[in-house]
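In the laboratory, one determines a bound structure by crystallizing the protein with its ligand and collecting diffraction data. In a computational setting the workflow is compressed into a single prediction: the sequence and the ligand go in, and a structural description comes out. We illustrate the idea with alpha-methylisocitric acid.
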Amino acid sequence: MTITITVEKDGYYEGNGMRHEPTVSLYIIPAASKLRRMLRDTRDLIVCPGVYDGLSARIAMEVGFKGLYMTGAGTTASRLGMADLGLAQLHDMRTNAEMIANLDPFGPPLIADMDHGYGGPLMVSKSVQQYIQAGVAGFHIEDQVQNKRCGHLGGKKVVSLEEYMTRIRAAKLTKDRLHSDIVLIARTDALQQHGYEDCIRRLKAARDIGVDVGLLEGFTSKEQASQAVQDLAPWPLLLNMVENGASPVITTKEAEEMGFRIMIFSFASLAPAYLGIRSALMHLKTEGIVGTPEGLGPRKLFEVCGLMESMKVDTEAGGDGFADGV
Ligand SMILES: C[C@](O)(C(=O)O)[C@H](CC(=O)O)C(=O)O
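The predicted complex, in C-alpha cell form:
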C-alpha cells in the first residue's frame, strides 16, 4: 500500500483526501533524527567534544562542532566532585543531559553517556525513556558490573553476555515502543578481562538485536582499532579518544581513514578546565589577583551563554528590560 502525504505551506498535510492538522513540528527536527540522518546520509566522521556542563557545551557550540558528547566522568566530577566510579545516578546524568541538550533547539545533537543503564532491564528501560524525553540524540550503554569505573582504569569487570543482552534488549524495546529515533550505541569494556574476540562477539550480538552503533572501549593499539572497524563493517563504530588513557593517540583524520563514524573526546573540556582553573587560582594565590586577560569580562562570558538571544526575546516581546542595553 502506498500512502501519499502532501505537506502544505501552512504545515497542514493532506492524507486520504483530508486536511490534517500537523501533530509533529515541521520546523524543529528532533536531535535524535538529526543524528540518525547524519549517520545515514553522510560518510563524514561526526566529531563530538566531551562537555560536562552548560558553559563547556556553549563553548563547543561557539566553536561550531556538529555534535556534542556528555561525559559521565565529567558529569560526575563537576556535579558530584567525585571520580568516575559509578557514583552518578540516572537523576544526575539525565538532568545534566537535559540541560545541555536543550540549550539550543537548533543546535548540535547530544550523545550522552548512560554507563550501565543504572540497574536491571527495568531500570534500563526507565533510563532510556528519560533520555528520550530529555532530548538526548544518542547514548551508549555498557557491559560493566554495577560497581563500574572509567573505561581507562585497570581492574574492570563485565557482566556475562546474556546479562548484557538483557540491557540491550530493554533499551531497544523501549526505543521502539516510544517510536524514538534515539541512536543506540552498545559499548563493551570486555577487552581487559576477556580479550578482543569476546568484544567482537558482544558487539555482534548487540548489532543483531538492532543496536545502531558499536563502541569497543580501551583499544590497546591502532591496528586493533582499525581491525574492529573491518570485523564489524558495515556497522558504524564510535571511537572514544581519551588522551593519556589506555589507548594510543588517534587523531580525527586517522579515525576517519580507519572508517570510524563517530568520535568522542571525553576529556576535551575537563582536562583543559582543570589546567586553566588551577593556573588562574595559583596566580590568585601568589599574586593576589587572577590576571584574567583583557576583554574577558562578564559580558563576553554571558555572550557565550546566549546573552544576545535572551535580550532579543525580551525586546521582541515588547519588554523594556534591555531598552538601554546591558
Ligand atoms: C567515556 C566515559 O565513559 C566518559 O564518562 O566520558 C569515560 C571516560 C573516562 O573516564 O576516561 C570512559 O571511557 O569510561
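The domain at 31-274 is CATH 3.20.20.60 (TIM Barrel). Keep in mind that any predicted model is a hypothesis to be tested, not a measurement.
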